[in-house]
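User: Predict the structure for this protein chain, please.
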Amino acid sequence: MKARVSKDELQEKLANIQNIVEKKNTMPILSHFLLDAGKKGSSIIATDIETALREPIDVEVEKEGKICIPARKMFEIVREVDGDLSFETVDEQWLKVRSGASEFKLACLPHGDFPAWPSSLGGGDIEEMTIDAPVLLEMIEKTIYAAGESDTRYTLNGLLFHPKPENKSFTIVGTDGHRLAIILRQIDSKVKDEKKIIVPRKAVSELRRFLPAETGEGEEHSVKISIGEKHLLFTIGTIQFLTRLIEGTYPNYENVIPQSNEKKISIGRDTFTKVLRRVSIMSKERASAVRVDLEDNKMTIFSSSPDLGEAKEEVPVDYTGDKV
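Assistant: Here is the predicted structure, written as structure tokens:
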């Protein structure tokens, strides 16, 4: 392989994969990215087995080739050099990198050792749905905090994606068994049957980096989600982000919240947050529990600790139900 690439182009692409490449040296190949330089198009791929990212890269190719390059070391080089970079491989084991007066020789790995990109997303029929990127970002941001992180109940260590084709609704749910967050939106879905898909928390957290917060007209403002039996593929503009799914049964969240509950409260979020912070000062850090009492148009929040003391604050709310 012999090619040339601009510093800005390579730095941007390598920044996108830094959280994906394996930090631990359990499998050396996973700390590398695959550069596929072709005259009809070039791309880079990074994976940690559970997730993978593929993105085209603008490379001036003199001689086509593939090679696995150490991701972090290459990123360090790109950040320090001042100009564009030229690549030349030596026996699939070394990569000569030149930029201005600087010259580096990197130990690399054969491209044949790199994990293959799944062609069928784990088998079975592939179904698709499309959602605006800012909408998906909002849904993730409002649920991911509630998902488990290292829970022994492994299905809780992800978000539930729940499309319902009969009403074209899409629900995302997060829970760690103590709290539950749910958000529902209407989307353009080609999914034939109702599905419950558990997406790992790490994958969803990384996906957020590629989702624009503002609406727009370009391809990068829309997300195509391809659903396979064992994988989920997100296509955002030219970026393809792949993740394995968590196998298992997610808790039946629809039975957790009563459908006919009349005890409903309306209170400003900022007001509620500030009151909780003030009252929580007197609760133990580990428990951080507070008691909430409700009666006509009034909420009382109370906390206490035998070692610290107690705190109480009353807040006006929109509530007319029974005393709780």
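The chain has five helices and 21 strands.
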